[in-house]
Write a structure and sequence with these properties.
Layout: H1 2-22, E1 24-30, E2 37-45, E3 49-51, E4 55-57, E5 60-68, E6 74-80, E7 85-93, E8 96-104, E9 109-114, E10 120-124, H2 127-136, H3 144-147, H4 158-181, H5 186-213, H6 222-235, H7 247-264, H8 277-290, H9 295-312, H10 317-329, H11 336-347, E11 359-362, E12 367-369, E13 378-383, H12 390-399, E14 405-410, H13 417-421, E15 430-434, H14 437-447, E16 455-458, E17 464-469, H15 477-488
Helix pairs in contact: 4-5, 5-6, 5-7, 7-8, 8-9, 9-10, 10-11
């Protein structure tokens, strides 16, 4: 019995080692000479993950390997992959800065040979994919705009659209020729097809919108919006699930699903969100039905709509409604717990709820507890960049002088206190606070800090008046009304 147990352990170990080897991507890099040059591999991980201020983001850009050639002309790296992924190879040497798209799979052996002219040559297993992408695919569709002669100040850029359509034809012809002499895996074909199909639509819509706006910041009317939306409805086609590797495809997938619902349930008032609660429920149901034969795209869209409901919609009814269905549809989903906690946090921030006390650092380098704000109403602004909101808030500071305390809490990780302190200028009835990375995690958990709703108004007893106040500058009527309400309590 003991002997059999040892055999099982040995077999399990060997199996693990074999699986590890199968999932390893080995890359050899060669530089023309030892110089101040570097290369990085940035993984495009199409996977929802918590992102400060917006809930769940659908793409994580992660640097998985980085090398420099200061002393050596050759370097070797190994990385683990369990499925095909898109990756960006970023190279910098002197004035040369270039990015190439890579398609890597578990078990790949790739040679990367940088050249004096800033180009790169690929060799090894599946190098054919990298060579094809280098020739026909830049990092993303926006990189083609300057290549095509796009001029932001010029209203008419029709030649850009024509060149985009020409590129689509070149890509299609090149890929047919490529397939005639190379076998391809489904994930690579899905990426090439999806990007080829969707990038021209995005560029055409971008140019047409600029023409409509006449290069001015103006709101499109319903006829103009319909014209732009019709581009997506006529051009978009559902492709296999691996098409999610393409960012432009994901963008168009969401647009395609959403347009019928926003037409059916248009917003009836000016809001800081783009989708009404009714439209959100409708597009969730539409996505669930239309993508029933595409399980990964189905889960992708339903997760996206649920996250939007939990972060961008001020009321909780929609997120609770969608969450109940999501839990039943995906009982093993890794995202359920995150959304559930977010909803629970928001329930603790309803009007009349006492705020959670937390101690942060003041500009004077002394700790300051939010409980010290009691005694006078306060307007708290969560700032995601230095001095964010302050230029527009000064009018409120003057209007409510001696009546309200204005608190600016800096919530971007990684910025040193000493750097932030230089830009935090105290004024009468204001308080500037700096949060450590650990404090930011607590603020996310207890205050659901969000870029779209950066304000919290509390009364003199330290109770919530309104947590979900949008940015409406230069004339923030909602914030003004909530501040007045806090004074009257």
């Amino acid at each position: 019995m003991q002997f059999m147990k040892k055999i099982s352990i040995i077999l399990l170990t060997l199996s693990s080692l074999f699986s590890y080897a199968q999932n390893t991507v080995n890359i050899s890099l060669v530089s023309p000479k030892a110089e101040t040059a570097s290369a990085s591999f940035v993984l495009e991980d199409v996977h929802f993950y918590p992102n400060l201020g917006i809930g769940l983001a659908d793409l994580k850009m992660e640097t998985v390997a980085s090398v420099n050639f200061n002393e050596n002309t050759t370097e070797k790296i190994a990385m683990q992959l369990t499925e095909p992924k898109m990756m960006r190879l970023q190279y910098s040497a002197g004035s040369i800065n270039k990015t190439w798209m890579l398609f890597l799979q578990p078990g790949d052996e790739l040679g990367v040979n940088f050249q004096d002219n800033g180009d790169v040559a690929f060799s090894g297993k599946n190098a054919k994919y990298q060579t094809f992408l280098k020739k026909y695919f830049l990092e993303n569709h926006y990189q083609y705009l300057p290549v095509f002669g796009y001029k932001p100040a010029q209203i008419i850029n029709k030649s850009v659209v024509q060149q985009s359509d020409s590129l689509k034809q070149i890509r299609e012809s090149a890929y047919e020729k490529f397939k005639s002499s190379n076998s391809t895996v489904p994930a690579f074909e899905a990426y090439v097809t999806a990007t080829t199909e969707t990038e021209p639509s995005l560029i055409r819509r971008l140019i047409q919108e600029r023409i409509m706006r006449r290069n001015k910041v103006s709101r499109l009317d319903s006829t103009q919006r319909k014209e732009l939306e019709d581009f997506t409805l006529s051009d978009f086609k559902i492709l296999p699930d691996d098409a999610l590797l393409s960012q432009s495809y994901r963008d168009e997938l969401r647009n395609w699903a959403l347009i019928p619902s926003t037409r059916k349930f248009p917003l009836t008032a000016e809001t800081n969100y783009e989708i009404s609660p009714e439209a959100l429920k409708d597009v969730y149901a539409f996505s669930k039905e239309k993508l029933k034969d595409y399980p990964r795209q189905r889960e992708y869209l339903l997760t996206y709509w649920l996250n939007y409901a939990a972060t961008a919609i001020p009321t909780l009814e929609t997120s609770k409604f969608l969450l109940a269905d999501y839990q039943a549809t995906f009982p093993e989903s890794e995202y359920t717990e995150y959304i559930l906690k977010l909803v629970q946090t928001r329930e603790t921030l309803l009007p009349g709820s006492p705020i959670t006390d937390i101690t942060l650092m003041g500009r004077d380098s002394l700790p300051f507890a939010l409980s010290k704000l009691k005694g006078k109403p306060a307007c708290i602004a969560f700032a995601f960049s230095i001095a964010q909101h302050e230029p527009n808030m000064k009018a409120f500071e003057e209007k409510y002088k001696d009546k309200v305390t204005f608190v600016y809490i800096f919530v971007t990780p990684g910025l040193p206190f000493t750097t932030w302190k230089q830009y935090a200028t105290e004024r009468p009835d204001t308080k500037h606070l700096w949060a450590t990375d650990d404090d930011i995690d607590i603020l996310k958990e207890k205050y659901a800090i969000d870029i779209r709703y950066p304000f919290l108004v509390i009364d003199a007893n330290g109770k919530v008046v309104n947590r979900w106040i949008p940015q409406e500058f230069p004339n923030n009527k909602t914030l003004d009304a909530e501040i007045q309400k806090s004074i009257l309590k």
